[in-house]
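To whoever is on call:

I kicked off a structure prediction for a single chain this morning and the downstream step that reads the tokens threw a length-mismatch warning. I double-checked the sequence; it's 146 residues and nothing unusual in it as far as I can see. Pasting both halves so you can look.
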Amino acid sequence: MRRLAELAVTVLIVGMGGNGQKLLSLGSGATQDTQKASYQEKATSSGRIRGKTFQVGTASWYGKQYDRKTTASGELFDMNAFTAAHPTLPLGTWVRVTNLQNGKAVIVRINDRGPLPRGRIIDLSYRAANFLDFEKKGVQRVRIEF
């Protein structure tokens, strides 16, 4: 029920590169789909608001231990690039990832499949996690828009 309440929120906070924050109103005509993907934990939701598809769930990050290893896309993983692993989105897809705790957002390119730890919806590069201010914590609730 809590997930449905969060989906009904009509104001999104979008990070603006760390300097300030901008509020975007979705208005009262927002619609939601509350489909659950089988690989996600119960607290994860997905749907559409005003034509944008999104997922809400837990993100983690990976770094030095995978640096310079081949990704699913065939390129070498660079822990200092804005990239991520996602289990189902097409490789090469650009997505906006928003840290729901502080409102910071970053755009990353999907270049890997994982494996992701159970219950995670995305695995970010070290640099992306650092930009979103959760690299020390290790995991964070995020919204992915694509």
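Update from on-call: the warning came from a stale cache, not from the record. Cleared it. Sanity check on the structure: The radius of gyration is 15 Å.
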